[in-house]
């Protein structure tokens, strides 16, 4: 597949590998490898320097090589396909399922399930992440977008980067929120001393979370969180920064939880809206939380 872009004023001075990673939704290291392999042309000439500084008006062409057939095993797992057509799918990921294979999780992932349930997946994500446009944490349930061809993958990824994908979550947080709604605008990056955690850090990536109270309980609150950005652990980090961590969160919550919630944080991606890459139709999907989440909400109601 050949991808073409024209660098604008905002791209001037950007490194070529960084630019490609953002535009083609690939890692910077893979972008650099493609440049060195002679797969990238600037203004019709082959460019093999990953550090090339773009100029305004540069015509960038990337020859994306065909992806080798995935060696990840297809597995018939519990994964509901909410919607699918020739271009994309919307799936419901249960809590406890990892999105893609990695060290410590070689199988039993959403990718393993997708390979069994869908006929085609975009190759842009590579062998381990075919079709994966975005992700949610292992212990978070909810709706995810999946691309079934590279054109859709590029379009959906661009919508996410441009913040035009509507994403909303339900979360049960510890304590009573003082206001009825609010916004956390605080940059997120790797924790300075614990690389397995994220944190609000100076120089981190922009992160904005809007929240609204849905229901109040004794000692807890059910809220809706709407994401303007989609950083790793964003809701969990932002809510913890307010002193209201997500109930059951083993990483950002208190060591001693107020209730014995098993299975991780009570966080559910219940809504996703986007523009269809081919038809241009605005699409919106919602899904109720899984039984574990609903059971805890009912229990908290009874204690109020």
Overview of this protein structure:
This protein has 304 residues and is of the alpha+beta class. The protein is 19% helix and 28% strand. It is built from six helices and 15 strands. Strands 5, 6, 7, 8, 9, 12, 13, 14 and 15 form a nine-stranded mixed β-sheet that branches. The protein has a four-stranded antiparallel β-sheet with strand order 1-4-2-3. Strand 10 and strand 11 (198-200) form a beta hairpin. The longest helix has 13 residues, at 291-303. The radius of gyration is 21 Å and the shape is globular.
Topology:
Elements: E1 2-6, H1 16-24, H2 28-36, E2 40-42, E3 45-46, E4 59-63, E5 80-84, E6 88-93, H3 110-117, E7 141-147, H4 150-161, E8 166-174, E9 181-185, E10 188-190, E11 198-200, E12 208-217, E13 220-227, H5 234-241, E14 267-275, E15 282-286, H6 291-303
Parallel strand pairs: 7-14
Antiparallel strand pairs: 1-4, 2-3, 2-4, 5-6, 6-7, 8-13, 8-14, 9-12, 10-11, 12-13, 14-15
| Major sheet | 9 strands, mixed
Helix content: 10-25%
Parts with pLDDT < 50 across at least 5 consecutive residues: none
Total beta strands: 15
Mean pLDDT comes to 91
Gyration radius, rounded: 21 Å
Coarse morphology: globular
Contiguous helical run count: 6
Q: What fraction of residues sit in β-strands?
A: 25-35%
Distance between the termini: 58 Å
Query: Secondary-structure element order, as H and E?
Result: EHHEEEEEHEHEEEEEEHEEH
Q: Please state the structural category.
A: alpha+beta
């Amino acid at each position: 597949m050949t991808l073409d872009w024209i660098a604008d004023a905002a791209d001037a001075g950007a490194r070529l590998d960084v630019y490609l990673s953002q535009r083609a939704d690939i890692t910077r290291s893979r972008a650099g490898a493609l440049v060195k392999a002679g797969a990238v042309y600037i203004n019709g000439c082959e460019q093999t320097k990953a550090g090339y500084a773009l100029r305004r008006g540069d015509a960038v062409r990337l020859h994306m090589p065909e992806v080798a057939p995935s060696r990840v095993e297809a597995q018939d797992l519990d994964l509901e396909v909410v919607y699918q057509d020739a271009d994309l799918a919307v799936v419901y990921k249960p809590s406890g399922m990892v999105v893609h294979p990695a060290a410590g999780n070689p199988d039993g992932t959403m990718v393993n399930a997708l390979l069994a349930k869908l006929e085609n997946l975009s190759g842009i994500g590579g062998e381990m992440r075919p079709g994966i446009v975005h992700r949610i944490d292992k212990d978070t349930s909810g709706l995810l977008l999946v691309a079934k061809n590279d054109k859709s993958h590029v379009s959906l990824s661009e919508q996410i980067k441009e913040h035009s994908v509507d994403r909303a979550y339900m979360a049960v947080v510890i304590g009573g929120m003082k206001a009825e709604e609010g916004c956390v605008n605080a940059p997120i990056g790797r924790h300075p001393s614990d690389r397995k955690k994220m944190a609000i850090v100076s120089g981190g990536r922009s992160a904005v979370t809007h929240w609204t109270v849905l229901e109040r309980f004794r000692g807890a609150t059910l809220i809706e969180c709407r994401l303007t950005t989609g950083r790793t652990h964003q809701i969990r980090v932002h809510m913890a920064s307010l002193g209201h961590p997500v109930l059951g969160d083993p990483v950002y919550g208190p060591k001693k939880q107020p209730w014995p919630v098993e299975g991780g944080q009570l966080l559910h991606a219940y809504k996703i809206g986007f523009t269809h890459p081919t038809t241009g139709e605005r699409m919106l999907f919602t899904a109720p939380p899984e039984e574990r989440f609903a059971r805890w909400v009912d229990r908290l109601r009874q204690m109020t």
